[in-house]
Specification:
Layout lengths: L2 H12 L1 H8 L4 H13 L5 H14 L7 H9 L11
Helix pairs in contact: 1-2, 1-3, 1-4, 2-5
C-alpha cells in the first residue's frame, strides 16, 4: 500500500465519526486526494487493517487524540507535509 492508500484505510478503520472530524481539517487538495483513494477502497482484510493500525500507532497515533493531532500523525506518512498523491 502506498501512503495515500494507508490514509484512506486508516480513516476507514477509525470509523465515520472520527474520520469525518479529521477530514474536516484537511485542505481541498488533501481532501480531493484522500476521497479519490477512499472511493477505490475495496475490502480491507483484517490482517491489512492490523498492519495499517500498527503503522499509525508507531507514528504516534493514540485513540484519545483530537482530530488535529490525528491529522498531524497522518501527515507523518508524507514527511510532515500535506497529504498528496504520489
Amino acid at each position: 500500500m502506498n501512503a495515500l492508500q494507508k490514509v484512506a484505510a486508516f480513516l476507514f478503520i477509525i470509523g465515520l465519526e472520527k474520520g469525518r472530524k479529521i477530514i474536516d481539517l484537511m485542505d481541498s487538495d488533501e481532501l480531493k486526494n484522500v476521497l479519490a483513494e477512499f472511493g477505490k477502497l475495496q475490502g480491507i482484510s483484517p490482517k491489512m487493517q492490523e498492519n495499517v493500525w500498527q503503522e499509525f500507532v508507531q507514528l504516534g497515533y493514540e485513540e484519545e487524540m483530537n482530530p488535529a493531532e490525528a491529522l498531524y500523525v497522518i501527515r507523518q506518512l508524507f514527511n510532515g507535509s500535506k497529504i498528496r498523491n504520489g
